[in-house]
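Complex record, two chains
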Amino acid sequence: MLPHMRAGYNLARWLLRNDQDAEDVTQEAIVRAFRFFDGFSGDNPRAWLLTVVRNSAYSFLQQNRARELATEFDEVLHSEPASNGRTSETPEVLVLRSAQQRFLNEAVEGLPVEFREVFVLRELEGLSYKEIADVARIPIGTVMSRLSRARRQLQAAVACREQAGSAS
Amino acid sequence: MNCSETKRLIDAYVDNELDLRGALEIEEHVARCPGCGEEERALRELQASARANLIRYAPSAEFEARLRDALRAEGPTVPVGSAEPSPAPPRPVHLRRAWGWAALAPFAAAAALLVVVGPRFWPPPSEGSVADAVIAAHVRSLLANHLTDVASSDQHTVKPWFQGKLDYSVSVTDWAAEGYPLAGGRLDYVEDTPAAALVYRRAQHVVNLFVWPSKRAGDEPLKRLSRRGYSAYCWAKDGMHYWAVSDLNEAELQKFVELVRHQG
């Protein structure tokens, strides 16, 4: 179960964009999941745990940061990513991260939460469309269109940055 | 396949979510359309960049310790186990049972390991993820109305069909006399590896038998997994992986698996 918890924390961290909230939500979700574990009869514990964490993260956003759930796509992309402590980064990670890496991570953080979610589940967790559909409770067609829009926005952000880079 | 259809499906294409026929049509189109070809290249570049660069946030050791305490506090019925790393139990045949909360025991030790290995570590595909991929391939073969590339009950037609499409040889046997007639063969992909899919029928049910070369040396014993109402048996023999997937009942699928395992 441990790797699934780590995946759960990673998802919460991406959805909530700060360590403290990610820890609180992950803990609450996992303790609750744990309580009901006996009743769990599915055969994909990873997807199940991700679903539990994801739902807790969304409840948290609804209660504390409802604005983030209601933002329009284009507004958010160009807004500043949430500033936060990044205590979970190890020194190796900091060394590895070039400016380009930092830019990509910030661009993903800048996506609206529904789009960030499918992108992270796909590229970091490697989930199939069907699994993403189950975790996020959306039809597969919506998975496809959100993923596609998220990618186009990221590509546009990268292109925009490259242009700015070559102009200066 | 035209440009607008390709644009609609190209994400699913780079994610390997299309069935083989759909994938081939897109592949053909992007090969001769520069615009769509560029789109594919850009998508793959973004995907590679995301996989290499996105941060995998790891919980801190303090948080994992706190979580462990919280789970302990859930009460005496909770089989958390000791905090000391315990020797790994023998791998059970039923994967489902391997996921116990007892796995929480080596929490701290594993956390330390994760920090050392770093967030860019990708584990090799587990049986679970292969099972997902194989069952997804089975479901796709039924959904897309694309069960076979070569429809034939003649093993001497199906076997040569794979030659030239795969760089390994697949033994094909028709089990009609035993009640599992061969329906044909299909080229499929399992976790990016080309695999031979042999299709058998049993009454109204379909059995997909996936075969591809094993990367690991040695045979592997028979295991059974289930997902979303489908059963899968897997094993490795003579350098090949075998996965039999179906919605058949256990006894009949097991009988089929035994036939295949003891052929030749």
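Note: Confidence is low (pLDDT under 50) at residues 74-87 of chain A.
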